[in-house]
Fold:
Amino acid sequence: MLSDKLQGAINDQINMELKASYLYLAMSAWCDARNFLGFAGWLRKQSEEEYAHAMRFFDGMREWGGTIRLKAIDEPTQSWEGLLELFQSVYQHECKVSAAINEIYGIAVAEKCYAPQSLLQWFVNEQVEEENSAHEIVAKLEFVKSDPTALLAIDRELGQRTSAQSPSE
Ligand code: FEO
Structure:
């Protein structure tokens, strides 16, 4: 049985993943409205991936006998100065998610609660990839600045993402 503290942390994480899903969907709409269809498609897939993350915790709680409590999701930010600022926000958000996952893992270890640890280890690894892929896009955008040809090339590349996993996976 999970402690109240661990259940609270996992419920907060379900909320955080759903918030990320909502935020990335708003970002996808922003890119779509500016005809950056590749960026929009990448973010939409990312939104789907965040929903899947929330459901992994949701199903974990069911299996571990925890009590699921869903919390409110605020309206996400819906305007950005440009693609660079938008993807810097993605990267910052992923860093916050990583910190939250590490915190939950720490609680599970401290409480000698073993059942959730393999899923949490999966999330630790997943967050390394999530941070890396967001950081890679930020670095490319910083490099090309506002060069239209280069931006369109990145847009085309990101548009090749066909699943909730990034193309490199
Ligand atoms: Fe589910 Fe991108 O963190």
